[in-house]
Design a protein that fits this description.
Elements: H1 7-10, H2 15-23, H3 27-40, H4 51-68, H5 81-103, E1 106-107, E2 110-111, H6 129-132, H7 136-150, H8 152-168, H9 185-198, H10 203-220, H11 223-244
Helix pairs in contact: 3-4, 3-8, 4-7, 4-8, 5-10, 5-11, 8-9, 8-11, 9-10, 10-11
Length: about 250
Amino acid sequence: MSEDPTSSKLVHDPPWLVALVRAEPRAPLMFPYLVYLLLLATQDFFPTRLLPLAISLHMLAGLWVVRLFRHHYPPLGKPHFFIAVAAGIFAAWGWVAGQHFFDGITIAGNGLGGRLPFYPGQSKTYDPHVDFGNGPLFWTYACMKIARATTAVPIVEELLWRGFLLQALVSWDEYDKVAYGKFYWRGFIGTALVSTIQHPDNWGVSILCWLFFNALFYWKKSLLCLMLTHATTNLALYIYVLRAGDWRFW
């Protein structure tokens, strides 16, 4: 009788998690991101002055969910540290430069740098100095936001985008049979287009950034490398915002 290949991984997991993963094998790659989005909405229940606390709790909860599924991820690969950091800085520069480039292009009265036409609401630039001033409270808020953007965010997003959707858009039901890191046009282009839902106010540069991230993943075949790249991009963007006061990218 052959041994269940998942048994060694599941032995230390709580029974409900074992049942969940067996019922939905895609859960470890999808749920951290979905739970992260769900918990993001809870920030609205915190008074503005307690937003740093809300962000820190959100970050810790996201990381806890990631840890919960730690036995069920595909091989994360090598960090490729110098390539990841260089790629992250380049992506941050491209995000800012590309957005300002799109801001200057108008077609039929619609600016390419604006919000997607089919996306509800209006894009608004938020300057946190208005709510937090310039003192310790502002810097507590900024540090918590940067900490979340360089830890929980890149992990949950890369598990979903490069760890799952690149393969799932090729074959949803048999995503795990799609060669890991193998190039497919459907995944390469599809994830970039879907990313615009996540970045409706920066949809043009979002497409370009996702194509760049996808290409890096196809090259290095390492989720860890992409997590580090993504974290570096977010860090560089926030440093730029704090120095330049360009709050559109906050």
